[in-house]
Specification:
alpha/beta, single chain, 10-stranded mixed beta sheet, 9 helices, 44% helix, 20% strand
Length: 287
């Protein structure tokens, strides 16, 4: 991974996402593209015909001119806001050792243009909730789920508070996406030297499939120099994984964006969605 796309906004999660981006970029010697998108779809000027029939043509012209001037002022404010957000992100990144930072301000819809941005990078980073989202722990940003559905690259979903990553937890279910995580752990320098925990969820600890999966993951990551702590836990996946992560003081959760038996490419696995909602730590998702 040599190029990271950081989706910036004005949310309380933004500063944390900048810090996580810096942490990863320095370990990977990667460049960071900081993207801020101003969505102007709701800022269209009303047509003069909307008013002429009810208040007269002259009054309508005056009102329209006032609306045009208001939109010009809004555009200036949006540009200034974008500039400040991008500069703040750049300051955080460069102060923490990122050598190359590219700033991008675009207008339109992030979702509509996401493919063109994503095609140029290896990893996407975004906050769990955006600028307009509330702070309720079970709420996800409106763009988040849509981006994860659309993305073909790994996505790091950051939490509200930054914490240096020392302990990793891989929720392993034997899926193709989880096998990609194993390959990443073995061949990437991103998490070299960190403590790695691997958990597989099963109905009971003697489940042969679960044992086979955990052994597979254990053997694979050892090729990358890890000496993992492996465990089979019982219960519902989202609850069991969340409890294990909390008990083990995990700093980053790695998991697949789709479950082992899910083939519909536009639907996030229910476990993935629930983990994003429950988790108080960042989650790195692979497709």
């Amino acid at each position: 991974m040599k190029r990271i796309l950081l989706c910036a906004d004005g949310s309380v999660f933004a500063h944390s996402s900048y810090q996580y981006a810096a942490w990863l970029a320095t370990r990977l010697t990667a460049t960071v593209d900081v993207l801020y998108v101003t969505d102007e779809r709701s800022q269209a000027v009303m047509e003069t015909s909307n008013f002429s029939g009810s208040i007269g043509i002259d009054a309508s012209d005056v009102l329209l001119n006032q609306l045009v001037e208001l939109e010009h002022q809004k555009a200036k404010l949006n540009h200034q806001r974008a500039k400040e957000i991008l500069q703040t992100a750049q300051q955080v990144l460069t102060s923490q050792g990122v050598e190359t930072v590219n700033l991008r301000h675009e207008t339109g819809s992030l979702i509509d243009r996401f493919d063109e941005f994503e095609a140029q990078v290896d990893l996407v980073i975004l906050g769990k909730r955006g600028e307009s989202a509330g702070l309720a722990s079970g709420h996800l940003g409106a763009n988040l789920e849509r981006i994860i559905r659309a993305s073909h690259k790994p996505c790091l979903v950051t939490s509200s508070q930054f914490k240096p990553i020392q302990r990793l937890l891989l929720a392993y279910d034997g899926s193709i996406s989880c096998k990609k995580i194993l390959d990443f752990l073995v061949h990437s320098s991103a998490f070299a030297g960190l403590d790695l925990y691997i958990v597989t969820v099963a109905k009971h600890a003697e489940d042969e499939t679960a044992i086979s999966r955990i052994n597979e993951a254990n053997q694979q990551v050892r090729l990358g120099g890890f000496e993992p702590v492996c465990c089979i836990v019982e219960g519902h996946p989202e609850q069991a994984i969340a409890e294990y992560a909390e008990e083990s003081n995990i700093d980053l959760l790695l998991m697949g964006a789709y479950g082992h038996n899910r083939i519909r490419h536009l639907v996030i696995g229910s476990t993935t969605t629930q983990m994003l909602r429950r988790s108080h730590i960042p989650v790195l998702l692979f497709r």
